[in-house]
Amino acid sequence: MDYAKHEAKAHARETMRGIWAAALTPFDSDLRVDEAGLRANIRHWIGDLGIAGLFMAGKQGEFWALSLDERKRLMTIAAEECRGRAGTIMSISDQSVSTVLELGRHAEACGADYVVVHAPMLSFCHDRDEILYEYYKYLCDRLDIGIAMWSHPDAGYLMEPETCARIAELPNIMAIKYSVPREMYARLTRLAGDKILVSTSREDDWLDNIEALGWQLYLCSSPPYQLQTKADQRMNEYTELAFAGRFAEARRVRDSLEPVRAAIRDTKPGSKPTAHGKYWQDLLGQVGGPVRHPMLNLTEAEKDATRAAFEGCGLRL
Protein backbone atom coordinates (compact mmCIF):
# COMPACT_ATOMS: atom_id res chain seq x y z
CA MET A 1 0.00 0.00 0.00
CA ASP A 2 1.29 3.42 -0.93
CA TYR A 3 -0.89 5.56 1.32
CA ALA A 4 -1.14 6.27 5.03
CA LYS A 5 -3.96 4.84 7.11
CA HIS A 6 -5.75 8.19 7.35
CA GLU A 7 -5.55 8.52 3.55
CA ALA A 8 -7.39 5.25 2.82
CA LYS A 9 -10.76 6.84 2.02
CA ALA A 10 -9.31 9.42 -0.36
CA HIS A 11 -6.99 6.90 -1.97
CA ALA A 12 -9.86 4.51 -2.66
CA ARG A 13 -11.99 7.25 -4.18
CA GLU A 14 -9.10 8.16 -6.47
CA THR A 15 -8.05 4.64 -7.50
CA MET A 16 -11.16 2.44 -7.27
CA ARG A 17 -13.09 3.33 -10.39
CA GLY A 18 -14.76 1.25 -13.05
CA ILE A 19 -14.99 -2.52 -13.18
CA TRP A 20 -13.39 -4.79 -10.58
CA ALA A 21 -13.86 -8.57 -10.80
CA ALA A 22 -14.00 -11.39 -8.25
CA ALA A 23 -11.60 -14.19 -9.19
CA LEU A 24 -12.43 -17.87 -9.14
CA THR A 25 -9.53 -20.06 -8.00
CA PRO A 26 -8.37 -22.53 -10.67
CA PHE A 27 -7.44 -26.03 -9.52
CA ASP A 28 -5.65 -28.71 -11.55
CA SER A 29 -6.86 -32.29 -11.94
CA ASP A 30 -5.27 -33.18 -8.59
CA LEU A 31 -7.13 -30.26 -6.93
CA ARG A 32 -3.96 -28.28 -6.34
CA VAL A 33 -4.07 -24.54 -6.89
CA ASP A 34 -3.12 -24.01 -10.54
CA GLU A 35 -0.72 -21.11 -10.09
CA ALA A 36 0.24 -20.92 -13.76
CA GLY A 37 -3.44 -20.93 -14.70
CA LEU A 38 -4.20 -18.18 -12.21
CA ARG A 39 -1.40 -16.02 -13.57
CA ALA A 40 -2.64 -16.58 -17.13
CA ASN A 41 -6.19 -15.61 -16.10
CA ILE A 42 -5.02 -12.45 -14.36
CA ARG A 43 -2.92 -11.40 -17.34
CA HIS A 44 -5.90 -11.93 -19.64
CA TRP A 45 -8.32 -10.12 -17.35
CA ILE A 46 -6.22 -7.00 -16.90
CA GLY A 47 -4.31 -7.08 -20.19
CA ASP A 48 -6.98 -8.13 -22.70
CA LEU A 49 -10.20 -7.19 -20.89
CA GLY A 50 -9.01 -4.02 -19.18
CA ILE A 51 -10.41 -4.99 -15.78
CA ALA A 52 -9.41 -2.27 -13.32
CA GLY A 53 -9.01 -4.39 -10.20
CA LEU A 54 -9.33 -7.90 -8.78
CA PHE A 55 -11.03 -9.26 -5.68
CA MET A 56 -9.05 -12.31 -4.55
CA ALA A 57 -9.75 -15.33 -2.34
CA GLY A 58 -13.41 -14.55 -1.77
CA LYS A 59 -16.43 -16.83 -1.78
CA GLN A 60 -16.31 -17.31 -5.55
CA GLY A 61 -12.65 -18.19 -5.01
CA GLU A 62 -13.70 -21.02 -2.63
CA PHE A 63 -11.78 -19.53 0.28
CA TRP A 64 -13.43 -21.95 2.68
CA ALA A 65 -11.72 -24.82 0.82
CA LEU A 66 -8.27 -23.23 0.91
CA SER A 67 -5.59 -23.55 3.54
CA LEU A 68 -4.25 -20.41 5.18
CA ASP A 69 -1.02 -20.77 3.19
CA GLU A 70 -2.97 -21.13 -0.05
CA ARG A 71 -4.96 -17.99 0.67
CA LYS A 72 -1.74 -16.09 1.31
CA ARG A 73 -0.24 -17.46 -1.89
CA LEU A 74 -3.23 -16.29 -3.95
CA MET A 75 -2.77 -12.80 -2.52
CA THR A 76 0.93 -12.79 -3.30
CA ILE A 77 0.40 -13.94 -6.90
CA ALA A 78 -2.30 -11.34 -7.50
CA ALA A 79 -0.19 -8.56 -6.00
CA GLU A 80 2.75 -9.57 -8.20
CA GLU A 81 0.71 -9.76 -11.39
CA CYS A 82 -1.34 -6.62 -10.80
CA ARG A 83 1.37 -4.32 -9.47
CA GLY A 84 1.35 -1.14 -11.54
CA ARG A 85 -1.34 -2.50 -13.86
CA ALA A 86 -4.51 -3.03 -11.81
CA GLY A 87 -5.77 -2.76 -8.25
CA THR A 88 -6.20 -5.56 -5.74
CA ILE A 89 -8.59 -6.12 -2.87
CA MET A 90 -7.96 -9.29 -0.87
CA SER A 91 -10.65 -11.11 1.05
CA ILE A 92 -9.34 -11.76 4.56
CA SER A 93 -12.74 -12.91 5.79
CA ASP A 94 -12.88 -15.63 8.44
CA GLN A 95 -14.80 -16.44 11.60
CA SER A 96 -11.54 -16.39 13.55
CA VAL A 97 -10.48 -12.79 14.10
CA SER A 98 -6.88 -13.91 14.58
CA THR A 99 -6.98 -15.42 11.09
CA VAL A 100 -8.47 -12.21 9.71
CA LEU A 101 -5.59 -10.24 11.23
CA GLU A 102 -2.95 -12.72 10.03
CA LEU A 103 -4.29 -12.49 6.49
CA GLY A 104 -4.58 -8.72 6.76
CA ARG A 105 -0.94 -8.38 7.78
CA HIS A 106 0.06 -10.61 4.88
CA ALA A 107 -1.97 -8.44 2.50
CA GLU A 108 -0.12 -5.38 3.77
CA ALA A 109 3.24 -7.12 3.43
CA CYS A 110 2.69 -8.51 -0.08
CA GLY A 111 1.63 -5.19 -1.56
CA ALA A 112 -2.15 -5.46 -1.74
CA ASP A 113 -4.06 -2.23 -2.19
CA TYR A 114 -7.04 -3.03 0.04
CA VAL A 115 -8.73 -5.84 1.97
CA VAL A 116 -12.36 -6.82 2.41
CA VAL A 117 -13.88 -8.40 5.52
CA HIS A 118 -17.22 -10.21 5.48
CA ALA A 119 -19.67 -9.58 8.28
CA PRO A 120 -19.14 -12.43 10.79
CA MET A 121 -21.67 -15.10 11.63
CA LEU A 122 -23.42 -13.97 14.82
CA SER A 123 -25.35 -16.93 16.14
CA PHE A 124 -28.28 -16.15 18.45
CA CYS A 125 -27.68 -12.37 18.29
CA HIS A 126 -30.58 -10.12 17.35
CA ASP A 127 -29.13 -6.73 18.31
CA ARG A 128 -25.98 -6.53 16.19
CA ASP A 129 -25.15 -2.84 15.77
CA GLU A 130 -22.63 -2.55 18.61
CA ILE A 131 -21.10 -5.98 17.90
CA LEU A 132 -20.44 -5.09 14.27
CA TYR A 133 -19.09 -1.64 15.05
CA GLU A 134 -16.66 -3.03 17.64
CA TYR A 135 -15.66 -5.87 15.28
CA TYR A 136 -14.63 -3.54 12.46
CA LYS A 137 -13.09 -1.08 14.93
CA TYR A 138 -10.96 -3.88 16.36
CA LEU A 139 -9.64 -4.61 12.87
CA CYS A 140 -9.13 -0.95 11.99
CA ASP A 141 -7.17 -0.41 15.20
CA ARG A 142 -4.75 -3.18 14.20
CA LEU A 143 -4.42 -2.83 10.42
CA ASP A 144 -3.30 0.18 8.40
CA ILE A 145 -4.57 -1.00 5.02
CA GLY A 146 -7.92 0.21 3.69
CA ILE A 147 -10.75 -2.12 4.74
CA ALA A 148 -14.01 -2.71 2.88
CA MET A 149 -17.07 -4.07 4.63
CA TRP A 150 -18.99 -6.95 3.05
CA SER A 151 -22.59 -7.83 3.82
CA HIS A 152 -24.41 -10.73 2.16
CA PRO A 153 -27.47 -12.78 3.19
CA ASP A 154 -25.40 -15.91 3.73
CA ALA A 155 -24.14 -14.43 7.00
CA GLY A 156 -27.68 -15.05 8.26
CA TYR A 157 -28.49 -11.33 8.47
CA LEU A 158 -27.87 -8.08 6.60
CA MET A 159 -25.95 -5.16 8.02
CA GLU A 160 -28.34 -2.22 8.30
CA PRO A 161 -27.44 0.94 6.37
CA GLU A 162 -27.30 2.93 9.59
CA THR A 163 -24.84 0.43 11.08
CA CYS A 164 -22.69 0.61 7.97
CA ALA A 165 -22.78 4.41 8.03
CA ARG A 166 -21.52 4.38 11.63
CA ILE A 167 -18.70 1.98 10.74
CA ALA A 168 -17.86 4.18 7.73
CA GLU A 169 -16.62 6.83 10.17
CA LEU A 170 -13.65 4.61 11.08
CA PRO A 171 -10.46 5.99 9.51
CA ASN A 172 -9.54 3.19 7.11
CA ILE A 173 -12.99 1.90 6.19
CA MET A 174 -13.18 2.92 2.53
CA ALA A 175 -15.84 0.80 0.76
CA ILE A 176 -18.53 -1.82 1.08
CA LYS A 177 -19.59 -4.73 -1.07
CA TYR A 178 -23.27 -4.57 -0.19
CA SER A 179 -25.28 -7.54 -1.49
CA VAL A 180 -28.65 -6.32 -0.28
CA PRO A 181 -31.94 -5.05 -1.77
CA ARG A 182 -31.65 -1.84 -3.75
CA GLU A 183 -33.51 0.26 -1.19
CA MET A 184 -30.85 -0.58 1.40
CA TYR A 185 -27.82 0.24 -0.72
CA ALA A 186 -29.48 3.39 -2.03
CA ARG A 187 -30.09 4.47 1.57
CA LEU A 188 -26.50 3.79 2.54
CA THR A 189 -25.30 5.78 -0.48
CA ARG A 190 -27.32 8.75 0.78
CA LEU A 191 -26.07 8.29 4.34
CA ALA A 192 -22.37 7.65 3.73
CA GLY A 193 -21.60 7.88 0.02
CA ASP A 194 -19.37 10.89 0.72
CA LYS A 195 -17.22 8.76 3.06
CA ILE A 196 -17.05 5.31 1.44
CA LEU A 197 -17.59 3.74 -1.96
CA VAL A 198 -20.82 1.74 -1.99
CA SER A 199 -21.25 -1.07 -4.51
CA THR A 200 -23.06 -4.34 -5.13
CA SER A 201 -22.26 -7.38 -7.23
CA ARG A 202 -25.31 -7.46 -9.54
CA GLU A 203 -24.07 -6.58 -13.02
CA ASP A 204 -27.67 -6.13 -14.17
CA ASP A 205 -27.99 -3.09 -11.88
CA TRP A 206 -24.57 -1.52 -12.51
CA LEU A 207 -25.64 0.93 -15.21
CA ASP A 208 -28.73 2.05 -13.28
CA ASN A 209 -26.59 2.64 -10.19
CA ILE A 210 -24.15 4.82 -12.13
CA GLU A 211 -27.04 6.90 -13.41
CA ALA A 212 -29.28 7.09 -10.35
CA LEU A 213 -26.76 6.90 -7.50
CA GLY A 214 -23.61 8.34 -9.04
CA TRP A 215 -21.60 5.17 -8.40
CA GLN A 216 -18.05 4.92 -9.74
CA LEU A 217 -17.19 1.34 -8.77
CA TYR A 218 -18.45 -2.13 -9.70
CA LEU A 219 -17.37 -4.37 -6.78
CA CYS A 220 -17.71 -7.11 -7.90
CA SER A 221 -18.35 -10.58 -9.28
CA SER A 222 -17.40 -12.71 -12.28
CA PRO A 223 -19.41 -11.05 -15.13
CA PRO A 224 -16.48 -8.81 -16.17
CA TYR A 225 -14.63 -11.88 -17.47
CA GLN A 226 -17.63 -14.14 -18.18
CA LEU A 227 -19.60 -11.66 -20.31
CA GLN A 228 -16.54 -10.38 -22.17
CA THR A 229 -13.74 -11.51 -24.44
CA LYS A 230 -10.81 -9.70 -26.01
CA ALA A 231 -13.01 -9.21 -29.09
CA ASP A 232 -16.27 -8.39 -27.27
CA GLN A 233 -16.11 -5.92 -24.39
CA ARG A 234 -19.65 -4.68 -24.13
CA MET A 235 -19.61 -4.36 -20.34
CA ASN A 236 -16.62 -2.04 -20.61
CA GLU A 237 -18.33 -0.20 -23.44
CA TYR A 238 -21.60 0.50 -21.66
CA THR A 239 -19.70 1.46 -18.50
CA GLU A 240 -17.67 4.11 -20.31
CA LEU A 241 -20.77 5.41 -22.11
CA ALA A 242 -22.52 5.75 -18.74
CA PHE A 243 -19.56 7.53 -17.18
CA ALA A 244 -19.73 9.95 -20.12
CA GLY A 245 -23.44 10.59 -19.43
CA ARG A 246 -24.58 8.84 -22.64
CA PHE A 247 -27.14 6.70 -20.86
CA ALA A 248 -29.46 5.84 -23.76
CA GLU A 249 -26.52 4.45 -25.75
CA ALA A 250 -25.24 2.66 -22.67
CA ARG A 251 -28.60 0.97 -22.12
CA ARG A 252 -28.66 -0.31 -25.70
CA VAL A 253 -25.24 -1.89 -25.27
CA ARG A 254 -26.11 -3.29 -21.83
CA ASP A 255 -29.35 -4.81 -23.11
CA SER A 256 -27.55 -6.45 -26.05
CA LEU A 257 -25.80 -8.68 -23.49
CA GLU A 258 -29.07 -10.22 -22.30
CA PRO A 259 -28.67 -13.39 -24.45
CA VAL A 260 -25.29 -14.00 -22.79
CA ARG A 261 -26.74 -13.44 -19.32
CA ALA A 262 -29.63 -15.77 -20.16
CA ALA A 263 -27.28 -18.49 -21.41
CA ILE A 264 -25.45 -18.39 -18.07
CA ARG A 265 -28.59 -18.06 -15.95
CA ASP A 266 -30.57 -20.79 -17.71
CA THR A 267 -27.84 -23.45 -17.58
CA LYS A 268 -26.43 -22.81 -14.10
CA PRO A 269 -27.56 -25.58 -11.71
CA GLY A 270 -28.76 -24.18 -8.41
CA SER A 271 -26.34 -26.40 -6.49
CA LYS A 272 -23.30 -25.82 -8.74
CA PRO A 273 -22.71 -22.09 -9.31
CA THR A 274 -18.94 -22.27 -8.89
CA ALA A 275 -18.47 -25.30 -11.13
CA HIS A 276 -20.64 -23.65 -13.78
CA GLY A 277 -18.61 -20.46 -13.62
CA LYS A 278 -15.38 -22.41 -14.01
CA TYR A 279 -16.69 -24.39 -16.96
CA TRP A 280 -17.82 -21.16 -18.62
CA GLN A 281 -14.25 -19.94 -18.16
CA ASP A 282 -12.96 -23.10 -19.83
CA LEU A 283 -15.26 -22.44 -22.80
CA LEU A 284 -13.86 -18.91 -23.02
CA GLY A 285 -10.29 -20.23 -23.15
CA GLN A 286 -9.53 -19.23 -19.57
CA VAL A 287 -8.40 -21.65 -16.86
CA GLY A 288 -11.27 -22.93 -14.74
CA GLY A 289 -10.85 -26.55 -13.73
CA PRO A 290 -12.69 -28.53 -11.07
CA VAL A 291 -14.02 -27.44 -7.69
CA ARG A 292 -13.13 -28.66 -4.22
CA HIS A 293 -15.54 -30.08 -1.68
CA PRO A 294 -18.10 -29.17 -0.56
CA MET A 295 -18.84 -27.82 -4.06
CA LEU A 296 -20.01 -30.24 -6.76
CA ASN A 297 -18.72 -30.51 -10.33
CA LEU A 298 -20.96 -30.44 -13.40
CA THR A 299 -22.15 -33.66 -14.98
CA GLU A 300 -21.39 -34.30 -18.65
CA ALA A 301 -25.04 -33.56 -19.48
CA GLU A 302 -24.82 -30.23 -17.66
CA LYS A 303 -21.63 -29.41 -19.56
CA ASP A 304 -23.30 -30.27 -22.87
CA ALA A 305 -26.24 -27.96 -22.12
CA THR A 306 -23.91 -25.17 -21.05
CA ARG A 307 -21.73 -25.55 -24.13
CA ALA A 308 -24.75 -25.41 -26.45
CA ALA A 309 -26.01 -22.24 -24.73
CA PHE A 310 -22.53 -20.71 -24.87
CA GLU A 311 -22.20 -21.37 -28.58
CA GLY A 312 -25.57 -19.77 -29.29
CA CYS A 313 -25.41 -16.71 -27.02
CA GLY A 314 -23.76 -14.33 -29.49
CA LEU A 315 -20.61 -13.62 -27.50
CA ARG A 316 -17.85 -12.84 -29.97
CA LEU A 317 -14.69 -14.87 -29.38
From TrEMBL:
GO MF terms, alphabetically ordered: 4-hydroxy-tetrahydrodipicolinate synthase activity
Q: Which domain of life is it from?
A: Bacteria
Q: What InterPro entries does UniProt report for this protein, alphabetically?
A: Aldolase_TIM, DapA-like
The record ties this protein, via SMART domains, to: DHDPS
Is Lyase one of the keywords UniProt gives this record? Answer: yes
Give the matching SUPFAM superfamilies.
Aldolase (SSF51569)
Q: Does the keyword Lyase apply?
A: yes
Q: Keywords on this record?
A: Lyase
Report any Pfam family annotated for this entry. DHDPS
Q: Which family does it belong to?
A: Belongs to the DapA family.
* Protein name according to UniProt: 4-hydroxy-tetrahydrodipicolinate synthase
